[in-house]
Amino acid sequence: GQQLNQSPQSMFIQEGEDVSMNCTSSSIFNTWLWYKQDPGEGPVLLIALYKAGELTSNGRLTAQFGITRKDSFLNISASIPSDVGIYFCAGRQGGSEKLVFGKGTKLTVNP
Amino acid sequence: DTEVTQTPKHLVMGMTNKKSLKCEQHMGHRAMYWYKQKAKKPPELMFVYSYEKLSINESVPSRFSPECPNSSLLNLHLHALQPEDSALYLCASSRTGSMNTEAFFGQGTRLTVV
Hints:
The structure holds two protein chains of two kinds.
Chain A: E1 5-7, E2 10-14, E3 19-24, E4 31-37, E5 44-49, E6 55-58, E7 61-65, E8 71-76, E9 85-92, E10 100-101, E11 105-110
Chain B: E1 4-7, E2 10-13, E3 18-25, E4 31-37, E5 44-50, E6 53-57, E7 64-70, E8 73-79, E9 87-94, E10 103-105, E11 109-113
């Protein structure tokens, strides 16, 4: 099936630093979604992207839908301790009901 | 309101038990999903219901039986599970299954099979 390659697998940063993570695929996707998941909880939607080249912000978070429609990135600016968690990208191909997930990026923020 | 409600939050069951997981949304979404998530892994799709009809079954064993009684409710009936079925079970919903829409997740049910 479709696979999303998400990197990095984990990041250890100092509070106040900026963070960048990305997802790539060999296939074209029509929708890219970015989620954050805390331990024992369900994923929480952060940003949704629907058009190639689209750049969308949500507070300190910014995500972009790649021009080739095969990738997306998420940036977090001025990280704070509550940014700790696992971030997942997810994508849907045109006409497909399946939402496919990347393997996640585990973020640790040192105060 | 983007709330998807799952009950129970935690469930411990024996291998001979029959139990059900429940999911509810009142956003008018017509696509609902069951995902299974093992520790340190991404969610894995199990089933998709679109307009109350089962549209995707990702080769899930028959000991898991989904049901969509109406457009707001989704159940997952469990019977004769194995310890390796212990996981976080997530329900999600979206406006439709195939168009460009967000998917919202519930908090999950932590299932332990003993």
